[in-house]
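Quick board copy: two proteins, each given as sequence then tokens.
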Amino acid sequence: MTRDEILTRLRERILTFATSRLQKDVAEDLTQEVLMLLHEKYARVTELTELVPLAFQVLRFKMLDAHRKSLRRGEYNDQSVDDLPLANPGDDPASQLDQKQRVDRLIAAVRQLGDRCRELFTWKLEGNSFPEIQTLMGQASINTIYTWDLRCRKQLLSLMGGSWE
């Protein structure tokens, strides 16, 4: 049996396993990712007895990653837009004043931050991921970016008076 035939049969098994635990479209995406990884990174693995456990281990990691990502994005608490009440277009003047004061405090605090923190927040607000920010800042380790982010957020919270409210 050739490697392509093995991968074709393995795909069916992976997809069945993933579909039993995830939605069909997510399961198909993860199956494709696993097969691509096996083809590109583990091309040297040809024995079926090694390939099957490896494929399922990679699939489990991919499933955990997808689960963490959906938790982080809040996808488990999704509600239909039709079920949500319509927002009141006009807030009362007290709420508007409170909101304006919070925004003014935030802007004043951000102005007191160093250049690195302002750049980091700017790139985060533009939608860049941490690996993209790592490249933009020219850092070798992503952990450096995580550390800077934590420190910048703590500094901003401190400048805001210890509370976001």
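And the next:
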Amino acid sequence: MDFARWRLPVLILLAIAWAAAPANAAQFYIEDLRIPMAAAGPQGLEAFLVRPDGTRRYPLALLSHGSPRSFADRATMSAHHYYGIALEYARRGFAALIVMRRGYGTSPGGRVDSVGGCANAAYLPAAAVSVADLRAAIDAMARRSDVTTTGMIAAGHSAGGLATVALTAQAPAGLAAAISFAGGRGSLDDDEVCNPNGLVQAFATFGKTSRVPMLWVYSSNDSYFGPDLARRFHDGFRAGGGNAKFVTAPPYGDDGHYLYSVESRPQWTPYLDAFLRERGLAREMLSPPDPLPPPSHFNDAAKAEFARYLASTSPHKAFAVSPNGGYGWRSGRNTVEDAERDSLAACMKWSPTCTLYAVDDRLSSGNVQGTTTDQVSRSR
């Protein structure tokens, strides 16, 4: 089965100030795809790729998501939600792939990675399911002409961090380093974890065969896996020979479990950069390109709304305008065509004629228009 894919080179604007040293402005390439995997059926696994827009092969950064406490919330997850995080790895010269494991987002699988009952939660079988999914993604990337699995890294958050640790215990060829942010599984409620001793033992088991250099980051106010439990994870892992540098990060917001997020990039990227430098994996930092200019006929309020559009890090977005200052925009759509259609429809609620001004973070050619008989004209 080949990838089901569409391609869209885009100019990515990160509309925040980074602490990184100035470097060359860059273009980035994004792609939605499905990862072939027999256990996932004909549909395969949902995935999203972000890499620099060049012609060479970029080393893979395999990114793994967490698991919500409520099973029902899995269906609302999307690889697009991790777009801003993936961009950070792409800015560092990697081909960042977010893969939704079986049972998450649109990846089929139901409860295939269940740990079972809380009191006797079994983490090793669940982790084996996750590792199989990650290996399927690595195999798929190895067949591409724009990605290399030589010198690749893996990074994960929460349950994705546990999956990343488990991956290092069966390390695929080419895995140079791995990062776990708040790694763990089985959080039932704040400071309540299912079978914590079993989880500690799972980390200890992984440490017996894991030799890939790792970075583990836990915030001191993580409500899922508090400092004492996180240290037990690390002690068990290291006792078996696992190679992991442990970092206790300062408190973050109301819950340090979410330190690894789009909003907190200034807090966690320094840990990532220091680790990559230590492992000889750091590359020239790619800077975001110059901001897109707002439409010339916009008033201050409309310009502020366009700035909000630029700041959105959800892919597949579009901004439509009308000659009289009206506008409408939508982000986080499944495809760029959906974003174009929905933004035009939003604009035309207030104006009879609208044209696409921007698509994702590039200026539109301006030849896609919409019209309506509604004569009401507003700024939003």
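Board note added afterward: The chain has a mean pLDDT of 89.
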